[in-house]
Amino acid sequence: MLPRAFDDLEVDHHQVKTTQVPRDVQTKVLQAIEQRNVSLAFSIWSQSAEETLRQASTIDGVLPGRRYLGRANKPVPVRRVLTAPRFKQGRATDFRVQFPAVALKVRQVQKQGRRLQSLERRAVQPCQQAAVSEAHQVWSAVVASAGFGKSLPHWVVTQAHIPWQDYPSIEQVSRMKSAVMTFANKCSADAWQHKKLSFNEQVEKSWHAEGGSLPFRLVRDPRKPPVLDMTIQMPIRLAPQTWNPAGKAWLKVLNPQDFPVGCTLLGDNLSVNVVSKVDDSLQVDRFLTRREASSLFRSFVSAEPEIWSSHFLDSGPMELLLEPATCGGKLYS
């Protein structure tokens, strides 16, 4: 348990700066340095500094708790009783194979490595009756384990080239554990490689025999972004009319209802405003040639589906573009 920081306390910095280091603390620190015990010197100085900050953090005559003290001190060893090892599920510190594999042989060999790991830990503990009994139970499970061909003793002698002992020493258990872990990683690598080759072969056969139905089933169709609004580009439709060489400001159109007074029309490097409208004629604020007038269109944003939904049923004159900001950055027309 680390001590709490002084960050949440109101420390009187002026009092801390004016506080002198006690003479006895200086003497103890110098003696520890002379003895070349830097850890003891730093511990003595840390205790004095913590107590000074604690005294400077007094609120209404009440000192903060001692949970703020204890830096640079050696932790007191605490004995904890661990639960029994779970060789099948494993714990955070237990052995795990290098590659993910669910093959039965890989799981058997990994479980054996965890047993030997636990047996090695028990062998270095003080010799007690309970520990000896548990070590014998683990060793009996090691000898009777599966996944090594004929038997584990046969595999240890023929494959790992380690002499077999009915009651192995700590060195024998350590060598056996290293060999089993290496074998477990090799089995997991072989199983992972076989899985990749089998999957690739299955996909290849599907392409030749079924026309690629399996690959298409494995690839998910990405979800379309929700449509919140649309930018509608409505082009102008000119009616038959005579044109002057200098152009004209009154334009006869076939869809005058789509261009209200005051709207802005865009074209090829130009922009005009509709200033008046009479029947099927629009008046703009400048003279236009026929080529310039035919390139005009009105652009506006609409959030009403009844305005632009008909475009999905037939190919009308409207051109719809989804805004990147409202449709996930994809453009549709």
Order of helices and strands: HHHHHHHHEEEEEHEHE
Tally of distinct domains: 3
Average pLDDT rating: 82
* Distance separating the two termini: 63 Å
Structural class by SSE content: alpha+beta
Which regions are unreliable across 5 or more consecutive residues at pLDDT < 50? 315-333
Largest sheet composition:
4 strands, antiparallel
Helices, by number, come to 10
Helix content: 25-40%
Q: What is the strand content?
A: 5-15%
Number of strands: 7
Strand arrangement within the widest β-sheet reads: 2-5-4-3
Radius of gyration of CA atoms, rounded to a whole number? 42 Å
- Specify the overall morphology: flat
In short:
The protein is built from ten helices and seven strands. The protein has 333 residues and is α+β, with helices and mostly antiparallel strands. The two termini are 63 Å apart.
Question: Which labels suit this protein?
Answer:
12% strand, 3 domains, 7 strands, disordered C terminus, three-stranded antiparallel beta sheet, 10 helices, four-stranded antiparallel beta sheet, flat, 333 residues, alpha+beta
If you had to describe this structure to a student in words, what would you say it looks like?
The chain is α+β, with helices and mostly antiparallel strands. It has helices at 13-18, 23-34, 38-55, 104-123, 129-143, 152-158, 170-209, 213-218, 290-294, 305-308, and strands at 230-235, 248-252, 264-267, 270-278, 281-288, 297-302, 319-321. The strands form two sheets. The chain has a four-stranded antiparallel sheet with strand order 2-5-4-3. The chain has a three-stranded antiparallel sheet with strand order 6-1-7. Strand 4 (270-278) and strand 5 form a beta hairpin. The radius of gyration is 42 Å and the shape is flat. The two termini are 63 Å apart. Mean pLDDT is 82; it is low at 315-333.
